[in-house]
Automatic annotation (TrEMBL):
Keywords: Membrane, Transmembrane, Transmembrane helix. The lineage of its organism: Eukaryota, Metazoa, Chordata, Craniata, Vertebrata. The gene is Sdr9c7. This is DR9C7 reductase. InterPro entries: NAD(P)-bd_dom_sf, SDR_fam. The chain crosses the membrane at residues 6-22, 134-155. The keyword Ribosomal protein does not apply. It comes from Indicator maculatus (spotted honeyguide). Gene3D superfamilies: NAD(P)-binding Rossmann-like Domain (3.40.50.720).
Amino acid sequence: FLGRIVFMSSVIAYFTLGNGIYSMTKAAIEKFCDALRLEMKKFGVQVCIIQPGNYARSTQIQPPVSAEEIWNELSEEEKAVYNKEYVQERANFFNSILSEGSPNSSEVVDAMVDALVSPAPKARYMVAKLKEKALVFVCTLFPTVVMDSVLSHALSK
């Protein structure tokens, strides 16, 4: 093979938990890579995707959010739609997810190195906790109506 391109995606490409824009961009990267991998194969270029799970604790990609800060940034129109309790629930939910992130980002780095130097790299490297891998599997297997129900329940906690 003559070359390699490695992209960073996320398991969030398969589902969204209130982070629609982030999820959408990761899903777009996945499909772009699928098309590019097939197109570049004839030129001897391999295309790989790294799909990390939650590594927020090790990367500090998103600091914890204060409900008060979020509330103070909302316009009066937004405040009329959302109440303070809702903002507090969402902040607690996202802060909980952030705190559950893996503290060991070397697993992601190892996958990136393998994608770059392996004589036979994988098309996808899913580097995630078992719970996250199971959720991805379920999302790809079950009908949308089932997943909407499951994710809606998770979001309502």
